[in-house]
Amino acid sequence: MVSGQLFNHKLLDVVFENANYGTIIIDNNGKIQYISNKYCEFLEVDREDLIGGYIVDFIENTRLHLVVQTGKSEMGDLQFLRGSFVITNRIPIFDDKEIIGAIGTIIFRDLDDWKKMNSHIKDLLARNNLYTPEVDQANGARYSLHDLIGNSHEMNELKERVKRVAGGDISVLIRGESGTGKEIIAQSIHQLSTRSTKPFVSVNCGSIPEHLIESELFGYEEGAFTGAKKGGKVGKFRSADGGTIFLDEIGDMPLHMQVKLLRVLQEREYEPVGSLQPKKVNVRVIAATNRPLEKMIENREFREDLYYRINAIQLVSPPLRERTEDIPLLIQHFFEKAKARIGKRVNSIHNDVYELFKKYSWPGNIRELENVMDAGVHLSNEEFLDIDALPEYIKRDSENIRRDSEKIQKKTLKELVEETEKEEIERTLKNCKFDKNKAAEALGISNSTIYEKIKKYGITE
Predict the structure, then answer these.
(1) Using alpha carbons only, how large is the chain's radius of gyration in Å?
(2) How confident is the model at residue 134 (pLDDT cuts 50, 70, 90)?
């Protein structure tokens, strides 16, 4: 049918191994006659296992055999392959007007480039609602990068870092206050990774009783202890095998469990409770905390070796008060979300609400803002959401802001300067543990001056 000369592997390798893509060639029966080493590396298979086999048995979602039938090229197509998107070209091969096969390519310079490209494609599709995490809810992840709402410098930088780290398998530590969206970041990394079709398992380390956390994470064998279920129990790490495990509030993990977690990260194995043999596991670990792990290490509350294992790459989720320019976007997002969930028509939001929200400190961050918008939609009339529809504590804060503003407006310049000076001296003294000489040096004033100011403002330790 086709001469062996046409599919001379040595010649084809010379051509295609220097190209920036993976290549596969089939004959007119759909059998694989050639596949480049780059393509094999991407598929994680040996070339010898594929040659001579039918392409539909080895390449998921392939259309190359259909190109042989139609004789029509398919260029720049998106193909979902091994849990990720690739850009593929499919071209029929003609010999004297007869179709004798087809050649297919997937484009990337190397595996790292492909991983970056895949993350970028998924992000673009999600932003245009063409690829949504709801499709993959079976994997346990509900959010993706487009759920990180905000166009501030801090958020744009964070999103770029998420896309850059998603392609690898390196451990990630997410830092941030409660309610800043740390789990959304973790799920975004998973959804943009090559593990996106595998499980995403979330564990809140602070919510599991200390005596149960080992069996919860690693499972147990039948008869491991009194009351153990028949047949044993599969732990979270086994459930996440092949995918990602998210260890939220890792700072709350007991010390004895930190040792066992370190073994999983180092050896890629664990022992279920009551088991005599370790079990291998393939998971990516993403951890998160709002606690000062460095201080905990000093106090011997957190293992330093574990800290360096989980902190290979650190991402920081900024508090809402540091990105107030994102508040209008978040207000609108949660407003539409609340209306859809509650089933209530509210036409608009009063400008006073926007102004108040930009001045409020948001100690509960995004989670608090979402809850406030939920309450506002519930309590609003059908025309617009105004300050009267907001929770009482928000309205009290609004009144306090107004009073403070009036007080400031009544103060003289001298009073404002003295008040600011007193606050700065108090803050510096506190940071220097009330060492007056160190505080004076930090403030750039003499020792005698700081003693005078302390006496003038009645500052006490």
Answers:
(1) 30
(2) very low
Give 74's contacts (C-beta < 8 A, 6+ positions apart): 63, 67, 88, 89, 90
105 Cβ contact list (under 8 Å, min separation 6):
19, 21, 22, 23, 24, 88, 89
The pTM of the whole model exceeds 0.70: no
Average pLDDT over residues 84-104: 86
H-helix segments, 89-131: 111-127
Which residue ranges form the domains of the chain, and what is each CATH number?
9-109 (3.30.450.20), 114-316 (3.40.50.300), 320-410 (1.10.8.60), 413-457 (1.10.10)
Q: How confident is the model at residue 459 (pLDDT cuts 50, 70, 90)?
A: confident
**Phi then psi for 110, rounded to 5 degrees?**
-155, 180
Residue for token digits 């918008």? 373
Please report which helix (H) or strand (E) contains residue 93, including its range: strand 84-95
Q: Given phi > 0 = left and psi -120 to 50 = alpha, else beta, which region is 360?
A: beta
Reported as a single tens digit per residue, the pLDDT across 174-193 is: 999 999 999 999 999 998 88
pLDDT, position 147 = 87
DSSP string, 178-239: TTS-HHHHHHHHHHTSTTTTS-EEEEETTTS-TTTHHHHHH-B-TTSSTTPPTT-B--HHHH
- What pLDDT, in 10s, does the model give residues 304-335? 999 999 999 999 999 999 999 999 999 999 99
- Collect all residues with Cβ–Cβ distance below 8 Å to 333 and sequence separation of at least 6: 149
The pLDDT score that the predictor gives to residue 265 is 92
- Per-residue DSSP letters for 16-69? HTTSSEEEEEEETTSBEEEE-HHHHHHHT--HHHHTTSBGGGTSTT--HHHHHH
Give phi and psi for 97, each to the nearest 5: 65, 5
What is the Cα 244 distance to its own chain's centre?
11
Question: CA–CA separation, 293 vs 286, rounded Å?
Answer: 15
3-state secondary structure of 247: strand
Confidence of residue 43 (pLDDT cuts 50, 70, 90): confident
Three-state DSSP at 85 gives strand
- Residue 161 CB-density burial (10 A; 0-12 exposed, 13-18 middle, 19+ buried): middle
In this predicted structure, what is the pLDDT of residue 457? 86
State both tokens at 163: 């896309």
d(CA 35, CA 14): 13
